[in-house]
């Protein structure tokens, strides 16, 4: 493995950490409704747990209401139960085949709790990025120990990995601030 390979691998893994963090942020709800909110809710479908989007059409009726239209007749009650039992705090109402999922307004207390959740997710993402940095630095030290690179090259590569880490952590901080502002906006 060369220095270039190590840096490329670190950059790829850090990029994946940011993508995972962005997906985590999408799951944290704000006052507005979006169909992706129900992606983490699974429903029992012939003995296996599948996401709601695989057994129903999930769309927006308006800014605060999600509509769920099951593809099979008997799935409505199961989907309603799954949404009610999820930790999202949603209360769907059934209207024939159609399920309406109104988004309750967030209280000030709940908004503050959500900002803590956002910060915690951001810290987890930073920990993942730092683990990638540590792994890259260990590979660089191994190359130096095996005398495949000079000390100067190893030091230069470590500095580049550190700059990459700093850039990725700054991006995570920016994402956290943006999501907090979105959650706190009334």
TrEMBL record:
Annotated signal sequence range: none
Listed GO MF terms: ribosomal large subunit binding
Boundaries of every Ribosome recycling factor domain copy: 21-184
Keyword Coiled coil set for record: yes
Stored InterPro entries: Ribosome_recyc_fac (IPR002661), Ribosome_recyc_fac_dom (IPR023584), RRF_sf (IPR036191)
Chief localization: cytoplasm
Subcellular location(s) of the protein: Cytoplasm
Keywords, in A-Z order: Coiled coil, Cytoplasm, Protein biosynthesis
NCBIfam families given in the database record: frr
Stated name of the protein: Ribosome-recycling factor
Species per Swiss-Prot/TrEMBL record: Rubrivivax rivuli
């Amino acid at each position: 493995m060369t220095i270039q390979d190590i840096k490329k691998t670190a950059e790829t893994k850090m990029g994946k950490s940011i993508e995972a963090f962005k997906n985590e942020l999408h799951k944290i709800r704000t006052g507005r409704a979006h169909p992706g909110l129900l992606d983490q809710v699974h429903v029992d479908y012939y003995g296996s747990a599948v996401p709601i989007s695989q057994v129903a059409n999930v769309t927006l009726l308006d800014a605060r209401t999600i509509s769920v239209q099951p593809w099979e007749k008997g799935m409505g009650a199961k989907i309603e139960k799954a949404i009610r039992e999820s930790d999202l705090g949603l209360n769907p109402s059934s209207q024939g085949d159609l399920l309406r999922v109104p988004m309750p307004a967030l209280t000030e207390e709940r908004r503050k709790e959500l900002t803590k959740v956002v910060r915690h997710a951001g810290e987890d993402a930073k920990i993942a990025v730092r683990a990638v940095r540590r792994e890259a630095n260990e590979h660089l030290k191994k190359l130096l120990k095996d005398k495949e690179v000079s000390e100067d090259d190893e030091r230069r590569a470590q500095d580049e990995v550190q700059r990459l880490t700093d850039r990725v952590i700054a991006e995570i901080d920016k994402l956290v601030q943006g999501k907090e502002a979105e959650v706190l906006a009334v």
